[in-house]
UniProtKB/TrEMBL annotation:
Sequence intervals crossing the membrane: 31-51
Top-level lineage group: Bacteria
Protein name per Swiss-Prot or TrEMBL: Cell division protein FtsL
Keywords in alphabetical order: Membrane, Transmembrane, Transmembrane helix
Length: 119
């Protein structure tokens, strides 16, 4: 009984396949439609693969740029901290060198100055 059912199913599938083949054969230029469909599907597959590859490449470049930016940001922060430290130590270094803070404002008037020592 089991063998009878599988052979009936196989015969039914064969009949359906034969009907599909007969239908395709009865149409005008059936091979052309099949070729166009296959080419379209292949082109779609290739385009999808190319887009995915480009997306992965862009993602990799983006992550590399983010790492580079974080390194540069850290370098800027380190340099800013060093500059702040040097600015904070500047008055002490000036005092150690014997410099004194300015007591009043000094201005130089160049209105009466003539080039070459002329009066």
């Amino acid at each position: 009984m089991q063998g009878g059912k599988s052979s009936e199913q196989g015969a039914g599938a064969k009949r359906r396949f034969d009907r599909i083949i007969a239908w395709v054969g009865s149409r005008r230029a059936p091979a052309m439609h099949v070729v166009v469909a296959v080419v379209f599907l292949a082109a779609t597959l290739v385009a999808a693969l190319l887009l995915r590859t480009q997306m992965v490449q862009n993602s990799f470049e983006s992550s590399n740029l983010e790492v580079s930016i974080s390194h540069l940001t850290q370098d800027v922060q380190d340099d800013q901290a060093k500059l702040n430290q040097l600015q904070a130590s500047l008055p002490q270094k000036a005092t150690d060198m014997g410099m004194v803070p300015q007591q009043g404002s000094v201005s130089i008037d160049l209105n009466g100055y003539k080039k070459g020592g002329q009066q």
